[in-house]
Amino acid sequence: MSRGHWNRRRVLAGMLTGAIATALGSVATAAGPSNPRIGLALGSGGARGLAHIQVIEVFDKLGLRPHRIAGSSIGAIVGALYASGLSAADLHEIIDSLTKEHDESWFEALLARDLTRWMQFIEPGAERGGIARSDAFIRFLRDKAGVTRFDELTVPLRVVATDFWSRDMVVFETGDLWPAVQASMAVPGLFEPIRHRDRVLVDGGLTNPVPFDLLENCDLIVAVDVLGSRTPETPDALPSSMDSLFNTFQIMQSSILTEKLKRMQPDIVVRPDIQDIRVLDFYRFEEIFKQGLPARDAFESELRQRVMPAKTSASRNLFKRTTLSTPS
Asked: Which one of the listed residues 60, 203, 225, 267 is annotated catalytic?
């Protein structure tokens, strides 16, 4: 194992261990029957969705579990792993097992000894519709989660996909889990669409980028928006063809979410200020976590106030609507 890998593991383990140790004495009573039923919506956003794990860190630290989860795209991936019973520490370990050294270029990574570790997840598309297949990645996720069906999950989950031809939202909550997740993450042009019965399914973020409206019978709804923002490298810079494609999706999803929030509001919106991280920049996970830290801390403070009336006066503010974002 490289020194960089060992250092990252040690730092992540230390952070999580310290957080749990701090929480034991002060918040051990948080998991009592008087807690509100919390709904958690995890949104789309590609690599930026790794910041969802920081929201899960807060739940773990406070000894809480959501009553229901809904997810789109990367949110469906993280939501499925979390709903299967994995902790934030488990999710960090999965990331660490997949991501390359942060100071390697993609070219250097392709020449590395463990090339096969990456190629098993990047299969050329065998048919029209995408340049890559996600089958191997889905098998990897299934093995890590240890479940195959929705009814095996420890927390009820809804997964959002999009019908390519009818343009309708498609919601999965029963049956086989991983085909639904695979459909939800099928970014058009990148991954092959998924055939399900008589439908052709693609990325759920195209119709419902943050599916908080799918959380029923919840006292407190938390929506996590990881769409982030992009800025030009220079004032007159034109985007590359790939940037044009993927950032167009982000523009569209941001517009959908903006209009949706005019009609209905979750109780808490967590919006990490993640800047200039591209959809596929998963190798920049350390930077993503660093940028997401202020929003994570703000969410922890807000959730403490709302679910721990014995320590605060939050019982009066349980249903107050709050947007937690950090300044640019």
From this structure: 203
